[in-house]
């Protein structure tokens, strides 16, 4: 799972976030907030909710989406009471947003994802 914007309540406070307000709305406007909170991944982790094993990925040098979204979301799931399946966080320290990767980085990332999938399903 590539986390683009995990914390929709604070997305507009980081990097390019202010430019996305016309698309997502402003969490500082009550009506927008009431919609945003319903689909914010970070804010919809519920007590007792267990999720399957997840691989959360981010590029450390992402100039569009701050990797803190992936880090915060993965940490919340990892520390969620009752969570039994592993939650993995992979930070690619050599890349940024997806299109900012070299062909070699893309191949390495796909290979990494496929290894995760094969290990998760027990192949």
Order of helices and strands: HHEHEH
Question: Any idea what the radius of gyration is?
Answer: 16 Å
Structural class: alpha+beta
Give the rounded overall mean pLDDT: 85
State the strand order across the main sheet.
Answer: 1-2
Helical amount: 25-40%
How many separate domains? Answer: 1
Overall, the morphology is: flat
Largest sheet: 2 strands, parallel
- By DSSP, the count of extended strands is 2
N/C terminus separation? 20 Å
What is the strand content? Answer: 5-15%
How many helices does DSSP assign?
4
Low-confidence stretches: none
Question: What's this entry about, in short?
Answer:
This protein has four helices and two strands; from the N terminus they run H-H-E-H-E-H. With about 120 residues, it is of the alpha+beta class.
Task: Provide a descriptive summary of the structure in words.
The chain is of the alpha+beta class. The protein has one domain (11-121). 36% of the residues lie in helices and 10% in strands. Strands 1-2 form a two-stranded parallel ribbon. The radius of gyration is 16 Å and the shape is flat. The protein starts with 20 loop residues before the first helix and ends with a helix.
Summarize this structure as a short list of keywords or feature phrases.
123 residues; alpha+beta; two-stranded parallel sheet; 4 helices
């Amino acid at each position: 799972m590539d986390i683009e914007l995990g914390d929709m309540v604070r997305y507009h406070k980081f990097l390019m976030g202010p430019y996305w307000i016309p698309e997502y709305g402003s969490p500082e406007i009550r009506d927008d907030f009431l919609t945003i909170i319903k689909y914010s991944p970070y804010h919809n982790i519920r007590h007792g909710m267990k999720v399957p094993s997840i691989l959360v990925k981010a590029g450390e040098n992402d100039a569009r989406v701050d990797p803190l979204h992936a880090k915060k979301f993965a940490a919340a799931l990892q520390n969620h009471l009752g969570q039994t399946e592993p939650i993995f966080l992979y930070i690619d320290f050599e890349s940024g947003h997806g299109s900012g990767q070299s062909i070699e980085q893309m191949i390495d990332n796909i290979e990494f994802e496929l290894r995760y999938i094969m290990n998760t399903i027990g192949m």
